[in-house]
Amino acid sequence: MSDTGTDSDSHTGTGSGTETQAASAGSDGNTSYGHKPFKRSRSHFADRITADGRDGWPVDAGRYRLVVSRACPWAGRALVSRRLLGLEDALSLAVTDPIQDDRSWRFTLDPDDRDPVLGIRYLSEAYDARERDYPGGVSVPAIVDVPSGKLVTNDYQQITLDLATEWTALHRPGAPDLYPEPLRAEIDEVMDGIYRDINNGVYKAGFASTQEDYADACTALLPRLDQVSARLAGRRYLVGDTITEADIRLFTTLVRFDAVYHGHFKCNRNKLTEDPVLWAYVRDLYQTPGFGDTVDFDHIKRHYYQVHTGINPTGIVPLGPDLSGWTTPHHREQLGGRPFGDGTPPGPVRDDEQVTPIDQV
């Protein structure tokens, strides 16, 4: 992997992670969006959970809890990977409220506003248990050690790679190989450009504080989208003929594009629905078990439009876009490919992990 593998999304410059305001930023954290230069800093907690436990955190069914926001594209990667690999029983899930306060991610969707497994009200409590007075922000995805209540890692770039390669003993029968060794060099190369110019690019555009910064971001973002569209015109998936980590990383940005990045982040040269290739590609993935069933457009829209008050001071959440097209035929199967390789689709979504149906958003 390139050195982007240990980066963590930071707008505040204090080390805050994806889609967050820094826990230490105070009550004006949300209003700062769009008024400070966008910056990406390294993940402070980059321990790895591995089969051999070399960082002190061995893979162990039931020991760890994955904390996510369904609004966050970086956490969305972990949600998709966990579903595809069938790790639901091995790695429990905590979902935060999409709306934050000055202490960042909170468990107000749970009874008594407290995570029922970790017993905490704020994710910051797990950060504090690991390192008191940590100066950075509170990011998702995060994996917490249940027995100690301590944060293990918030390294979202490495988390999904480790789920695919280090947690294999706990994968479901028929789990796909999301990071096949013979293709890793090509996957890494493709992911690097997508990360830099698309995953990160929409944030650079959306949080730009000057016309020049915005133009620079779009100058990188738009040609990369065109390049990816051209790559996918004759192939079903980004690398090889099966779904890989590269597709997961592109999907979680594309699925949010028309709903929030096009308008809220001003990435509005054209909508995704106006690119026949990318629109068909993302619908193909959305309709694949393990992808669309992790996406909650209600959480996505409310988070971006209500939390980023520096960009959207009224907090008004748009009624659109029309989401009915996500379930229409895509015809990408005509390109061949085997979504799960020699494996099988994941089983049904657990009752306690259902997302808001698109016809109710």
Task: Break the fold down into its secondary structure elements and pairings.
Layout: E1 7-10, E2 39-42, E3 64-68, H1 73-85, E4 92-95, H2 124-130, E5 142-145, E6 150-153, H3 156-165, H4 184-199, H5 201-206, H6 211-232, H7 245-254, H8 257-261, H9 276-286, H10 297-307
Parallel strand pairs: 3-4
Antiparallel strand pairs: 1-2, 3-5, 5-6
Helix pairs in contact: 1-3, 1-7, 4-6, 4-7
Labels describing this entry:
globular; alpha+beta; single chain; four-stranded mixed beta sheet; disordered N terminus; 361 residues; 31% helix
What does this structure look like?
- A 4-stranded mixed sheet has the order 4-3-5-6, with helices on both faces.
- The two termini are 37 Å apart.
- It contains 10 helices and 6 strands; from the N terminus they run βββαβαββαααααααα.
- The longest helix is centred in the middle third of the chain and has 22 residues.
Could you state the oligomeric state of the chains shown? single chain
> Mean of residue pLDDT?
91
The number of helical segments is 10
Strand order of the largest sheet: 4-3-5-6
Shape: globular
The residue fraction in helices comes out at 25-40%
Largest sheet: 4 strands, mixed
Radius of gyration: 19 Å
Number of strands: 6
Q: What are the secondary-structure elements, in order, as H or E?
A: EEEHEHEEHHHHHHHH
List low-confidence stretches.
1-27
Instruction: Indicate the structural class.
Output: alpha+beta
Termini Cα gap: 37 Å
Query: In percent terms, what proportion of residues is strand?
Result: 5-15%
